[in-house]
Amino acid sequence: MSDPLRAWHGLAGTCVLLDGFHALKHALRFGAEVPVAVTADRAAALALADALAPDVRDTLDALLTEVGRAAYASLVPRPHPTEVAALAVRPAREAGLARLARTPRTAPVVVLDNPRNLGNAGAVIRLAAGFGATGVVTTGTLDPWHPAVVRGGAGLHFATAVERLAVGDLPAGPLYALDPEGEDIRGTKLPDGALLAFGSERSGLSPELRARADHLVALPMRPQVSSYNLATSVAMTLYHWSLGAPHAV
Ligand SMILES: C[S@@+](CC[C@H](N)C(=O)[O-])C[C@H]1O[C@@H](n2cnc3c(N)ncnc32)[C@H](O)[C@@H]1O
């Protein structure tokens, strides 16, 4: 690329920032369109690819342009230890919504009801990608494509569908809402077509989400412990789904 910094500044407003080697590696593996990628140390980045991601090594070799350390640092909120950054085209919302709406599903959709913490949302997207979930839907004001969420998701937004929707517009399917007051999840088989909904870190499930829920299910928890962290609750629930789904990863 003739002038990567110029290209970067032209695209930064509309593209998704991939911050670090691992985010770029994951995005490429899952088909992201990456128009510009820079590094402050090309030899080190390609050595990382040789060691950790030989499958995308040639793509990275063609894509990565070395820029000065100061120029690299000027492009990112805080320099990443791998000194790699890239911009990816955000998938069209229509495509994400179509993926979420398609039935029958082979894996659940995770719904985060008004999440507040960007790192939690990113961790949940990483979990959804790892378990092969159909997608992650957030309700409320948090942008699930916020740079801090993409950072927390390690570039795995491109491995699943990620959209924000109102509770009234959630995809079809039986909704299992996770709540400590629900029925023990160990007696429940979660269907592949389920929506698995989790409440906000601050206030739990909203009244709208509760009204849409078909089942309330609880994760085992000792008395006097109030609740688990949001992302760990999603991890346990997806793991529980995977145990009953022979085709799950
Ligand atoms: C940090 S908790 C919310 C705590 C919040 N203060 C409340 O009043 O519910 C975030 C979400 O994780 C899920 N969660 C946490 N612990 C759970 C448990 N033992 N059983 C089922 N869901 C749980 C629920 O969906 C909950 O809304």
Question: What would a concise description of this structure say?
Answer:
This protein is of the alpha/beta class and 249 residues long.
Query: Mind telling me the CATH class of the largest domain?
Result: Alpha Beta
Task: Report the uncertain regions.
Answer: none
CATH topology label of the largest domain: Alpha/beta knot
* Class per helix and strand makeup: alpha/beta
CATH-level-2 architecture of the largest domain? 3-Layer(aba) Sandwich
Individual helix count:
10
Fold and architecture overview:
It comes from Streptomyces fumanus. With 249 residues, the chain is an alpha/beta fold. The chain has two domains: 85 residues, 60s Ribosomal Protein L30, Chain: A; 151 residues, 3-Layer(aba) Sandwich (Alpha/beta knot). Helix content is 37%, strand content 18%. The chain contains ten helices and ten strands. The strands form two sheets. A six-stranded parallel sheet has the order 7-6-5-9-8-10, with helices on both faces. α7 runs parallel beside α10. 42% of the residues are buried. The mean pLDDT is 96. The chain binds S-adenosylmethionine (SAM). S-adenosylmethionine binds next to β8 and α10.
Main attributes of the structure:
RNA methyltransferase activity, 37% helix, elongated, 60s Ribosomal Protein L30, Chain: A, alpha/beta, 249 residues, single chain, binds S-adenosylmethionine
Task: Describe the SSE topology.
Blueprint: H1 4-11, E1 16-19, H2 21-29, E2 36-39, H3 42-52, H4 57-63, E3 64-66, H5 69-75, E4 84-88, H6 93-101, E5 109-112, H7 118-131, E6 135-138, H8 147-152, E7 161-164, E8 175-184, E9 195-198, H9 207-212, E10 215-218, H10 230-243
Parallel strand pairs: 2-3, 5-6, 5-9, 6-7, 8-9, 8-10
Antiparallel strand pairs: 1-4, 2-4
S-adenosylmethionine binds next to strand 8 and helix 10.
